[in-house]
Write a structure and sequence with these properties.
mainly alpha, Helix Hairpins
Length: 226
């Protein structure tokens, strides 16, 4: 692979990572928006099911009314058979037409009922999935909040440790300076004491009370004196 191709691939990879980072940073907001959209679609689905249920009800009413009409004309046909056969045949024909109409309405009713059953199952499944998604989002939000708190605490802890380390180092430097100053003061005191003692010794020696250089005669006299 040429350098140019590698560069293009790297740029594409960087762009993808940047896009993913943006998406990740907006993940919860995206999930909330998707949930709102899903709820709106479910609301539309509930409305559509309401319309289907209304059509089912109307179709059922038509089927029931046709059943009543069929039963009525069957009664008319039985009553007319003894007095007017043609009237009885006309009533029988009406019953046939009503049955055909009833069959068509019954098919519509069955289709509406099947659509309602299928739609009801789909809506129930979608609502269950949505509830699970909302629960997961709530858990993610709670976990995100806890982790942010933990990060904040950790950052403060690290910051506190860093500050404590800096403060400890400063304290050590102060103590070292104080120890050095104390040692210097002690040395100065010792030097002053030595100078005072040396001066006193000189004064005693000059007065002939203490010290001084002894002669050989003095040393011999001392020895003979023993």
């Amino acid at each position: 692979m040429s350098v140019w191709k590698k560069l293009v691939t790297a740029i594409k990879g960087g762009a993808t990572e940047a896009a993913e980072a943006v998406v990740d940073s907006q993940a919860l907001r995206i999930l909330d928006q998707e949930i709102r959209e899903a709820k709106e679609e479910l609301r539309k689905s509930d409305h559509a099911r309401t319309q289907i249920l209304a059509k089912c009800k109307l179709a059922q009413q038509k089927v029931d009314k046709l059943d009543e009409s069929i039963a009525e004309y069957e009664v008319h046909a039985r009553k007319a058979i003894d007095t007017d056969k043609q009237l009885a045949l006309d009533c029988a024909q009406k019953v046939t037409e009503l049955k055909e109409e009833r069959e068509a309405e019954a098919q519509f009713l069955a289709q509406f009922q099947q659509s309602d059953k299928q739609l009801s199952q789909n809506i129930a499944q979608a609502k269950a999935n949505l509830r699970r998604l909302e629960q997961q989002v709530d858990m993610v939000k709670a976990t995100e909040s806890v982790q942010k708190a933990q990060v904040a605490v950790s950052s403060r802890h690290l910051g506190a440790n860093s500050k404590m380390k800096t403060a400890t180092e400063s304290l050590d430097r102060i103590q070292s300076k104080q120890n050095m100053r104390a040692a210097e003061l002690q040395a100065a005191e010792e030097l002053a004491a030595d100078e005072s003692t040396s001066d006193l010794e000189k004064r005693l020696a000059s007065a002939g009370i203490k010290g001084g250089k002894e002669s050989a005669e003095d040393e011999l006299a001392r020895i003979l004196g023993k």
